[in-house]
Amino acid sequence: MTDSDADGSDERPVVYELADECTETALETGEYYHATVNGVVEYGVFVDLSDALSGLLHESEIPEDESYDVGDELVVELVEIRENGDLSFSTVDFEEFETVEREFEYDVADVENFDERVGDDVHVEGEVVQVKQTGGPTIFHVRDETGTVPCTAFVEAGVRAYPDIEVDDLVHVDGEVERREGSLQVEAQNIEVLKDGQAEDLRARLEAATEARAEPPELDPLIDWPAMEELYPELREVARFLRRTVLEGRPIRMRHHADGDGMCASVPVQLALEKFIDATHEDPDATRHLLRRLPSKAPYYEMEDATRDLNFSLEDQARHGQKLPLLLMLDNGSTEEDTPAYRTLSHYDIPIVVVDHHHPDPEAVEPLVDAHVNPYTHGEDYRITTGMMCVELARLVAPELDDELDHVPAVAGLADRSKADAMSDYLELAREAGYDEEFLQQISEALDYEAFMLRYDAGRELINDVLNVGDVDETRHRELVEFLADRADQDVEEQLDAAMSHVESERVASGANLYKIDLENYAHRFTYPAPGKTTGEIHDRKVVETGEPVITIGYGPDFAVLRSDGVRLDIPKMVSDLNDEFPGAGVSGGGHLVVGSIRFVKGMREEVLDALVEKMADAEIDEELHSAPTR
Amino acid sequence: MTDSDADGSDERPVVYELADECTETALETGEYYHATVNGVVEYGVFVDLSDALSGLLHESEIPEDESYDVGDELVVELVEIRENGDLSFSTVDFEEFETVEREFEYDVADVENFDERVGDDVHVEGEVVQVKQTGGPTIFHVRDETGTVPCTAFVEAGVRAYPDIEVDDLVHVDGEVERREGSLQVEAQNIEVLKDGQAEDLRARLEAATEARAEPPELDPLIDWPAMEELYPELREVARFLRRTVLEGRPIRMRHHADGDGMCASVPVQLALEKFIDATHEDPDATRHLLRRLPSKAPYYEMEDATRDLNFSLEDQARHGQKLPLLLMLDNGSTEEDTPAYRTLSHYDIPIVVVDHHHPDPEAVEPLVDAHVNPYTHGEDYRITTGMMCVELARLVAPELDDELDHVPAVAGLADRSKADAMSDYLELAREAGYDEEFLQQISEALDYEAFMLRYDAGRELINDVLNVGDVDETRHRELVEFLADRADQDVEEQLDAAMSHVESERVASGANLYKIDLENYAHRFTYPAPGKTTGEIHDRKVVETGEPVITIGYGPDFAVLRSDGVRLDIPKMVSDLNDEFPGAGVSGGGHLVVGSIRFVKGMREEVLDALVEKMADAEIDEELHSAPTR
Amino acid sequence: MTDSDADGSDERPVVYELADECTETALETGEYYHATVNGVVEYGVFVDLSDALSGLLHESEIPEDESYDVGDELVVELVEIRENGDLSFSTVDFEEFETVEREFEYDVADVENFDERVGDDVHVEGEVVQVKQTGGPTIFHVRDETGTVPCTAFVEAGVRAYPDIEVDDLVHVDGEVERREGSLQVEAQNIEVLKDGQAEDLRARLEAATEARAEPPELDPLIDWPAMEELYPELREVARFLRRTVLEGRPIRMRHHADGDGMCASVPVQLALEKFIDATHEDPDATRHLLRRLPSKAPYYEMEDATRDLNFSLEDQARHGQKLPLLLMLDNGSTEEDTPAYRTLSHYDIPIVVVDHHHPDPEAVEPLVDAHVNPYTHGEDYRITTGMMCVELARLVAPELDDELDHVPAVAGLADRSKADAMSDYLELAREAGYDEEFLQQISEALDYEAFMLRYDAGRELINDVLNVGDVDETRHRELVEFLADRADQDVEEQLDAAMSHVESERVASGANLYKIDLENYAHRFTYPAPGKTTGEIHDRKVVETGEPVITIGYGPDFAVLRSDGVRLDIPKMVSDLNDEFPGAGVSGGGHLVVGSIRFVKGMREEVLDALVEKMADAEIDEELHSAPTR
């Protein structure tokens, strides 16, 4: 009606070229648009403005001398948007005009609010974190700044929708929020990869949101301890890394040493991660899919375990479209022996984080991992147990855990016989939480016993009951711990009953007492306690009995466990010397100062053990040194 | 209109106070009700009688001098219930009246009839037996006097509905019966815990119904045998306990000795329980969730198995909201060696039932279990095999099994070489069912062989085929048994071919023949037959060969298996004496009269075996005694 | 109206008796039908022609003197089919007529087109290949000439619908095509077993279709090699058998030797079968249900593995109604040691197919299996490796794989040290695909290493990455192979470092060098490389070192691995002689010319080994003979 409006101005009129996706929200009456004829009827022509927008140009609006065919392009003015959504246009005939492209604009919705938007058509912009092909639709898990939501798309049963869209792509999803068996999802009408500009913008927004949400809370360590203070920045960094991993929808696979300290390390972190996953994922099964805790039988990350972990992760990726996991090594993982396994994983997108307090080989390990926290790298030692560090780590991941874990560092310290000065503070903290030292000791023994009985099984509920972490019946916890500790004690007694009378002793040149026990012949096999612990128990009794420097060797057909109190052992050097002396003995092993283990071929046992004893006879007495836990 | 009605009577009028849940069924025109104003409009006020009942008090019914505000309480008379359900009231103005509370009354529906009530709104009163949190709704499994039905409740995806309602609570569920993928369930509009009076009433009804349904049928044992008659009341009691366990929705975890008699015991009970579960649960997957049969590798309930069972059960409880299971020990479980495992479970709500025929330690076991059936506690012995008892038990759980099991006691007896007089009756019973003794013997050998090959696996279908229990192809059963028995026989022959020439013999002081075989050096390892059976086979041949009293010792590096015919061995005393003589040998073990096994540390084998032989040389000859099966 | 039409003819009029299932398609106006009165109303009577067809006989059409009661039978003429489907009839009164039965005729739909027929009522004729009882409906998987589709039928939750219909029955399903969570299925209104004539007809059509679809493509082997040409017809036959097995909905369980050649054999066949299953089954999960690849730890098919396979298959049959599987043995399965396991399976409907290149016992094996391909049966030998044969087999199953496998035969040949002349052609083929020999060698070592690390796990994704088969990242493949080959190499070096100095040597009578290594005492146990490979590596070094005939014996406590180069060993004869000389030694084992292994009881090791060496001293020198791979 008003095609004169623009003529009078001294600027060229603007004609909009609508993007294909544009809907009614992109229209305003009185504006001009590029249009294409899509149908010619008796009473006029139908024109398209975009995929979704078309309307009638009535014959009365068409100059008599003009006629259109399908496909013709023209400029129209939008005269009216009727109540029923029909559009009517008039023609315009500009000599000159300026064409302006109009992108489809939409309000981007926040995933965290979708429970209030069921039934609404929404637009989500986010990153694809998982693409799961089901027997029916394809499910794209899309993460925005506020959460992650599954978006379903269907072409044909079991056929991949949008085959070009993959994990890590940044997309725009247009669809309806629905509740399916109670879970929220978006039934996608359209998913498309964002173009460069939009993608960069979204990437920046996501990164900023992730950074903010991954930031651990400001906390003080549970006790005032300079040694822990020094490690705190690194633990914060690990907490940030883990929180970010969760936010990015990457699974976490936790491997831990299967003993008391390993449990005290891994169980709190497991609980904290579960809480953080629950708080940040819409999918109620996310915890189950994103977190797995696995005890390691060996004291290092064996190739077989790594192969199994990798295989399992690749199957998950193939079957459920999940990202490959982050590997979190706790109370294990700092040594050269772990590196072949790390190297295997390095060919895949699997970040590795290690928190350990065993004597490390940082030069070998650190190039292969994304983070490595170990007290030795700060001039401290095993006395800061992994459990102590990981309770702090757990609090940084989920601060709401806080005082629920007050007794755990003390258990960890007792389990690994930490001589840290801070032990008294930890014991005091536990006492305030209602735990006396004797009972804490019993917890540590019960954990060790159950770790043996469970073997490859994490035993989540049972270990929670023993450690009293999570939602636990207090009375059961108390009774169970007492029973298990007592049981463990009886088994140790039975083992030592058989073994003690077969312990051989000699006083060596340095003046230390050296004890030897043939575990193959004088200890029960395949029962609790295992050879390492059996040796440790014998050693401890001898230390108490003599009050003097003690070295204890427990040996089997092809291995020996070494423990010392008050004698400085240089085990790596011994191993290297033994290999020089007996090239056909295949000696390997390691350890540090007061604890270690070596392996050799069975047929060379006698030669190796004799030489070993000789070397120990010359080892330097150092009253400061006390046995750290063996593995 | 008629507020004069009540005035004329000489009693105070009754005004009803309706419970919040009351619906139209609680109303009658002409009655008086306490009401609360919930809205004031031009033409009157709206009043509430309960959560669901409200109606209009028209201005014409309100005295001119009266005015109401929201929240005011008054007494109204119900004038009319219109067709559309609208209620209209008039005011009354009593000086005195009596208030009577009216509970919401509803017809309680029976779960067993729900297949005819799809689409109806129903009321269920029952006990919560499982609370499963899904990714969508929470599912409460509710048991009434007639069955168990899943009731779904939804607040938010994956969020626990009615978090205060837990397993064992008595509840009233109001909801609609629906069929979901074919299964019946109730979509709950409301679930609430019953108040004291109602709860007591329901508890009594449930208990009475459970008691009636748990009652085993009146049956006679398959054969006329006083010894079995004596055990029958206890087996009935166990049957009642198991039936009650099923009715209460508690899972059953069956552990059994992995040999012929153990199979003959556990397979019939498994089948009977499956039938009973099917008959009493609406959920077609109930059998899979409520029953699990597991062979035990060791001849007692190992701590590791108990730990695994407990861990598994706790995970089921955490993930599926199931009750903790009942543990049913069959052909295992009567000895002191089982008690550490029982003690572990005792900290949890896990009832334990034992049916065994191995020589028991009742004083140690019975305080820890809920039922213990063992012929020795009635002056009988191993000759009543567990298989014989459990066929009766199975019939008491599911009488429809009846003659399907007629051949099983004979197989059990042959498997454990029972010398019971009743064997001839059992063989006759089997003969009538079409089984001659030779073939029964083959079944027992095939079972033993398959138990070895399956290791930790129950092998449900395969064992059913071998034992011909359940829905089995008769021809296949026959052929399979013959093949497997033959195969087992060949393996035994091969083992004895190697071993027999290395058997050492001597005639001891008592006149008995003593045979010794070094199994580590002269038998194949890790193959069928295992050391216990190998020893037994050698022993049996020597008994036949000599026709005199025989003692056989099969020994490995740290164990010895003992068998005797015609010589009375006091194995517990031998173990105790050996421990006194060799404090560092770690001797343990047990057995009874003619069968046993001991363990020791490898390095003391020679001393222990020599002393053992000496003790056996003095053992008393008793022609009555024949070898019972070893484990 | 026109009941005179037929009267004028000289033949008896035809009156149709409609089958119960007939619908409107069976009608034509003017025809005569047998009808039954089902209702009498004021204005006439209603008559039934079939279950679905009934209509009005108006009173005006009924002779005045005639009256009908419900149940009366009469002949009617169809006057009109109204637009709304109502039928109207007139009466006829024939003295004589011929009755012709009219079967229900329907258009049988093709399963392959069901994605275009959602919402339509269709008729399917096919064979039942699986009957799965769910908690809700029963699902019948029905296969027609074009595909397989699930058909659901419901009576009551978890109750078997049509209990008489079983796997292998030929049925007619009438129902509606629907899409359920994206998958196509038929909701059956009716399923019935076809009668003899129809069944025969369908059986013939199915058979013809299956035969056509099972026919492998016409292909030439990858290289021009007469030896392979000779095996080609048998491989085609196996391909046809496997394709038919897939078409018939029978699962395939693949067992393969867990080494390099076994991987090169099984992985291509797995991939090919996956592609063929995907192309022929509607159910998108079919691949997962129908195919399983399992490495065998032992070098033959152990009874324990067979028992586990059988148990697993029977559970699948019981739980999911699947057919029992076909067993496909690859690079294993040709020897007498496999027969006990085959015999166990022979009692069940489990076809067995073997493709192997180890020295076979055709007389023992072939009567027990459905197909057996082995180069020795054609006068060829191990030099045609199983991997070479199976690459051809895979191409015959899924020709689209073609050049994706070009490098695999060369890897297989290197893995088993094939001395085939064709190796140069295979190496050339691989070179053209971008693989040089050194790298192919590394792949073979990496496969062997991963086979050890994965143990019982197939490791699908990981092995695909190593072998570069399927959808693999090329760079990762290259890096991973190099890393793993290097790792394997280091482990071998470490093992030989310990072992080499303990190798004992002597020059025997024949002039050959004989080497002996005590693996129990001078090799690490339970690590890579295992005893067989350790022996092989020592042997290979000695062959290179001496350039003369070499025999190597690696022995443990109860076994010995034998390898020879240039010396002809008759291992079966040695075993038989040893058994004669030492009846209590339990010697068993086997092998062929240059490779073998024997077992014996531990206590007779010295005697057996000494005698073995003596026998070898006399073995004939034959420069032609080179070591084949041991197992």
TrEMBL record, chains A, B, C:
Pfam families (UniProt xref): DHH (PF01368), S1 (PF00575), tRNA_anti-codon (PF01336)
InterPro entries cross-referenced by the UniProt entry: DDH_dom, DHH_sf, NA-bd_OB-fold, NA-bd_OB_tRNA, S1_domain
Organism (species): Halospeciosus flavus
This protein's name: DHH family phosphoesterase
S1 motif domain residues: 30-92
